[in-house]
C-alpha cells in the first residue's frame, strides 16, 4: 500500500481500492455471462454511495433489508426492477416505500407477512412480486451469529409451511409469486452447504410443481466468503467455483433464472481501515499498540471474534519484528484487533492497515463513546 495517497487524510478512515472492486466485478461478469445466474449486491455489506454507483453501473441488482436502503439503491442508480427487499420485520412504511418505487421483489419471511403485504399492495393499487424465503435447515458451518438457515434461526418460512404459504400468496389478487428465496449464512468458504442448498431447492421445486406451481426464479442468497488471512494472495474470491457449484447442481427449466445476493464477496477485499498509532504502551508481559481506530469503526473482531490482517504500512522493509497486542481506545475489553501480532517495531504516529474491511466495516460503524463516524477515500 502506497501511503503517499493517504497524506492529509484524517484517521481513522476507510480506504477503498477502486481498481480491485472493478476487477472483482469484471470477474463476476466474466463468470456469469451467458448463464441464467443474475447477481445482486447486498447493500448492507457497505452502503457507501460512491461504491454503490460503481456496482450499479455494472447492471447488478440490489438486495435491500430496509426502506432506507431501497431509497439509497434507487438514488445510486440501481434499476428498481432489480431491487429485492428482504427482512423479517418490514414495517408498513418500508413496504410502502418499496411498493412506490416499484421494486422487483419482496422476499417474504413469514405467513403473517403475506396478509400484511397483500393489504398494503392492494391499498396502493399495485401488484407486488414476491418470493418466499424458505428456511432450508442447513448448517453453513460458519460463526453462530452469521448462520441463518437453521431451524432455530428467526429467518424464513419453515419447510413444513411452504405449501400453505404458496396457497396464501396465490389467493391474493395483489401478489404474484415469482420464486423462492434462501440465505443460509455468511463467510461460507466451502462449497458443500451451497450444493446441499441446491438439492433442497430441487426437491421443493418438484414438490411445488406437483401442486401446479411454476416459479420464475430461485434466489440462493449470499454468503460466499473471502480470504481474511491472505488478502494479497486471494484478492478476488473464486467466483468461478461458486457459480459452477450452483449452476451445476440446481435444476432449472428453460426460462428459469437463479439469483444470488453477494455482499462480502464483492466489497470485502477492496476495503482497509487505516488508523494511526496513538502510542505504544510497554506492559510488564507484552507491548500494546494503541491505535486511533476502535470497535466503533470496525466491530467485527469484538462482535464475531473475527480477525483482520494487520499491517504497519509506515515501517521500512528491514524493521525488526516484535510481538504486540493491537487495541483500540474504547472503554471495552473487547476493543482488541489482534493479540500476539508479529509486526515491525512500531512507533507513535505510524499508520496501520486492517485489511479485508470493505464488508460490514463502515456499514456497522457507530458513534459509541461519541466518536466520529470514519470517513473514506476511494482511489
Ligand atoms: C446479509 C445478506 C446477504 C449478503 O450476505 P454476504 O455474506 O455478505 O454475501 C444476502 N442476502 C440476505 C438475505 C442477507 O441478509
Architecture overview:
It is a single chain. This protein has 379 residues and is an alpha/beta fold. Helix content is 28%, strand content 24%. The chain is built from ten helices and 17 strands. It has helices spanning 18-32, 49-56, 67-75, 92-101, 111-124, 162-171, 192-210, 239-249, 264-267, 300-304; strands spanning 13-16, 37-42, 61-64, 83-85, 105-108, 128-135, 157-158, 175-181, 217-219, 257-262, 271-282, 287-291, 310-312, 321-327, 336-344, 351-354, 375-378. The strands form two sheets. Strands 1, 11, 12, 13, 14, 15, 16 and 17 form an eight-stranded mixed β-sheet that branches. Strands 2-3-4-5-6-8-9-10 form an eight-stranded parallel β-barrel. Helix 5 packs parallel to helix 6 (162-171). The chain binds pyridoxal-5'-phosphate. Pyridoxal-5'-phosphate binds at residues 42, 44-45, 63, 65, 86, 183, 186, 221-224, 261-265, 359.
Question: What's the SSE blueprint?
Answer:
Layout: E1 13-16, H1 18-32, E2 37-42, H2 49-56, E3 61-64, H3 67-75, E4 83-85, H4 92-101, E5 105-108, H5 111-124, E6 128-135, E7 157-158, H6 162-171, E8 175-181, H7 192-210, E9 217-219, H8 239-249, E10 257-262, H9 264-267, E11 271-282, E12 287-291, H10 300-304, E13 310-312, E14 321-327, E15 336-344, E16 351-354, E17 375-378
Parallel strand pairs: 1-17, 2-3, 2-10, 3-4, 4-5, 5-6, 6-7, 6-8, 8-9, 9-10, 12-14
Antiparallel strand pairs: 1-11, 11-12, 11-16, 13-16, 14-15
Bound molecules: pyridoxal-5'-phosphate.
Pyridoxal-5'-phosphate (PLP) binds next to strand 10 and helix 9.
Amino acid at each position: 500500500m502506497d501511503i503517499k495517497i493517504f497524506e492529509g487524510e484524517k484517521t481513522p478512515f476507510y480506504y477503498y481500492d477502486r481498481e480491485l472492486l472493478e476487477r472483482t466485478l469484471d470477474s463476476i461478469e466474466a463468470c456469469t455471462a451467458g448463464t441464467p445466474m443474475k447477481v445482486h449486491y447486498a447493500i448492507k455489506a457497505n452502503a457507501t454511495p460512491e461504491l454503490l454507483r460503481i456496482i450499479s453501473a455494472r447492471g447488478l441488482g440490489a438486495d435491500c433489508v430496509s426502506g432506507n436502503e431501497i431509497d439509497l439503491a434507487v438514488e445510486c442508480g440501481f434499476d428498481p426492477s432489480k431491487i429485492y427487499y428482504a427482512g423479517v420485520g418490514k414495517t408498513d412504511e418500508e413496504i410502502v416505500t418499496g411498493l412506490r418505487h416499484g421494486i422487483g421483489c419482496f422476499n417474504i419471511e413469514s405467513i403473517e407477512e403475506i396478509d400484511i403485504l397483500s393489504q398494503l399492495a392492494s391499498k396502493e393499487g399495485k401488484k407486488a412480486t414476491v418470493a418466499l424465503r424458505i428456511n432450508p435447515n442447513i448448517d453453513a458451518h460458519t460463526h453462530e451469529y452469521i448462520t441463518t438457515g437453521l431451524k432455530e434461526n428467526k429467518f424464513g418460512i419453515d419447510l413444513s409451511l411452504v405449501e400453505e404459504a404458496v396457497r396464501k400468496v396465490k389467493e391474493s389478487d395483489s401478489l404474484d409469486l415469482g420464486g423462492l428465496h434462501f440465505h443460509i449464512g455468511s463467510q461460507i468458504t466451502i462449497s458443500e452447504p451451497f450444493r446441499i442448498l441446491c438439492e433442497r431447492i430441487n426437491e421443493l421445486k418438484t414438490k411445488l410443481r406437483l401442486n401446479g406451481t411454476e416459479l420464475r426464479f430461485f434466489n440462493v442468497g449470499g454468503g460466499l466468503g473471502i480470504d481474511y488471512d491472505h488478502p494479497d494472495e486471494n484478492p478476488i474470491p473464486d467466483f468461478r467455483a461458486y457459480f459452477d457449484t450452483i449452476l451445476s447442481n440446481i435444476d432449472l427449466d428453460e426460462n428459469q433464472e437463479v439469483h444470488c445476493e453477494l455482499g462480502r464477496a464483492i466489497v470485502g477485499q477492496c476495503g482497509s481501515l487505516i488508523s494511526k498509532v496513538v502510542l505504544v504502551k510497554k506492559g510488564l508481559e507484552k507491548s500494546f499498540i494503541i491505535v486511533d481506530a476502535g470497535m466503533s469503526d470496525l466491530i467485527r473482531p469484538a462482535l464475531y471474534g473475527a480477525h483482520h490482517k494487520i499491517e504497519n504500512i509506515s515501517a521500512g522493509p528491514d524493521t525488526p519484528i516484535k510481538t504486540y497486542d493491537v487495541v483500540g481506545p474504547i472503554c471495552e475489553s473487547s476493543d482488541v484487533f489482534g493479540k500476539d501480532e508479529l509486526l515491525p517495531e512500531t512507533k507513535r504516529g505510524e499508520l496501520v492497515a486492517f485489511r479485508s474491511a470493505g464488508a460490514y466495516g463502515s456499514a456497522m460503524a457507530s458513534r459509541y463513546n461519541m466518536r466520529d463516524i470514519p470517513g473514506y477515500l476511494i482511489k
